Structures are given as C-alpha cells and as structure tokens.
C-alpha cells in the first residue's frame, strides 16, 4: 500500500510539474549519495541524510534587467506654420527652427508581456529657437512604446525596432512686451537602435502643435510644426553598478 501511494504521488507531481525540470545541464547525484537515499528509504530512517545546496548557481529564469531610470538628450530641426485668425480673416507665416530636448523617465510593463518593460513614462524640457530671433521653451509629460517585440533586426548584442510616442504640456514665449503660454501636443514615430541594454540611439519624425493664448482678445494663434529629431538615451538598470 505504501509503495502504491508513493507511485501515485510521483505521478501527480510529474503531471503538474513545469516542463524541462531536468535538462542536459542538470548535474546527476553521485553514486554514494544515491545509495544513502535508497538505504534511508529501506530502513525508514532519514536522519542521516545531509542536504546541500547546488554547487553551480543556476541562471535566472528571465534574462531581464529592471529599469531604474532613463535619461536622454536629442537635437532636432523643424518647419513651423503659424496662423493668426479672428472673425474677419486669417494670416499665416512660416518659420524654421532648431531645438534641444532633455528627457528623464522610467520604463514599465503595463499592457505587455511580464518582465519586458517596453512602455516608458517620461518628462521633457526643450528649448526651441526660431529663425526670427525668437525662442520658446516647452515642458511635457509623455508616453513612449518601444516596440522591441516587433524588432526589424536583432542580434545577441543589439536590436532595431520602431517606436511611437505622445506628449502633452505647455510652451512659453516672449514677444515684444508680452509673455505668452500655450498648450502643446507632440506626436512622433521613429526607429531605435538599442545596444547592450543601456544605450538607445534614435531618430524620430515628429508633429508638434501649439495653441498660444494670444494677449489680444479675439485673436486665435496656432503653430504647427513638422520635423526630424535624433538623439541618445541611457538606461540605468538594477545591477549595472
């Protein structure tokens, strides 16, 4: 009866155990230890058995580094169309611009597979100079999806994948004696070259829209920009130092 019970338990454990419990890397027990276990079972006395930790530490189940922080710096150029309008009509002007943008954020696993963290929540601060000797600053909060699960090219050390991001925030500009603020939205798509879990080199196409609060009542002021931005991000992960 005892032997039948042991066989039943072993069968249930086998059915419910994870696959690949044993592999070609599993180190077998020495013959002397095997003999001790059998003798202890026959005698019914397991007090003499000694349990030891594995001599070789097994690698982690997931090859995963949890992200601590992401910092980035990028440079871009864009063409802006600004439209002023009221009840009587509208007028448009075009500007070329160059910008510098600083990013700080963190990666998370949100709606994706566990232990992947492809979604980034971040904060940005940017300085943009227009060709009319006027500049403005912008801060935004954003969300970026690093679609490395759809990698275009991948090796053991690097991969290339598409990204998409959306930001919302506020811009500030000074014109003549007026200080003006505006609601800003930014949508971008691009490609990222990621290397060794730490560095990301990227190039993005972006579309930015700013609705300025014009100081003269009754005038609507909207600026739309389309451009190219390139830069680098550094990802600090647990265990890097």
How would you portray this structure in words?
Helix content is 12%, strand content 56%. It has two helices and nine strands; from the N terminus they run ααβββββββββ. β1 and β2 form a beta hairpin. It is rod-shaped. The mean pLDDT is 85.
What is the secondary structure topology, with strand pairs?
Blueprint: H1 2-16, H2 31-43, E1 67-86, E2 89-108, E3 119-130, E4 135-146, E5 153-154, E6 158-175, E7 178-195, E8 199-212, E9 220-237
Antiparallel strand pairs: 1-2, 1-9, 2-3, 3-4, 4-6, 5-6, 6-7, 7-8, 8-9
- N- to C-terminal separation? 57 Å
Helix count from the secondary structure assignment? 2
DSSP strand count: 9
**What's the Cα radius of gyration?**
30 Å
Report the sheet with the most strands, covering strand number, pairing sense and barrel closure.
8 strands, antiparallel, barrel
Shape: rod-shaped
Q: Could you name the key traits of this structure?
A:
rod-shaped, 12% helix, eight-stranded antiparallel barrel, 241 residues, mainly beta, 2 helices
At a glance:
The chain is mainly beta and 241 residues long.
């Amino acid at each position: 009866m005892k032997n039948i019970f042991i066989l039943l338990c072993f069968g249930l454990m086998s059915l419910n155990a994870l696959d690949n419990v044993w592999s070609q890397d599993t180190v077998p027990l020495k013959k002397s230890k095997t003999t001790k276990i059998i003798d202890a079972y026959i005698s019914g006395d397991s007090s003499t058995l000694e349990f030891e930790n594995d001599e070789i530490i097994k690698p982690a189940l997931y090859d995963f580094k949890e992200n601590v922080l992401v910092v980035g710096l990028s440079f871009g150029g864009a063409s802006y169309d600004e439209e002023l309008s009221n009840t009587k009509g509208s007028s448009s002007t075009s500007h070329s611009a160059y910008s510098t943008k600083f990013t700080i954020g963190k990666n998370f696993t949100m709606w994706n597979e566990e232990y992947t963290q492809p979604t980034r929540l971040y904060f940005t601060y940017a300085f943009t100079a227009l060709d009319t000797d006027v500049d403005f600053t912008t801060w935004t909060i954003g969300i970026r999806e690093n679609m490395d699960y759809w990698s275009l090219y991948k090796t053991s050390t690097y991969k290339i994948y598409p990204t998409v991001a959306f930001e919302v925030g506020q811009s500030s500009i000074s014109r003549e004696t007026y200080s003006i603020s505006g609601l800003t939205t930014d949508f971008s798509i691009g490609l990222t070259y990621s290397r060794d879990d730490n560095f990301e080199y990227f190039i993005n196409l972006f579309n930015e829209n700013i609705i300025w609060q014009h100081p003269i009542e009754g005038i609507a002021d909207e600026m739309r920009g389309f451009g190219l931005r390139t830069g680098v991000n550094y990802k600090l992960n647990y265990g890097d130092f």
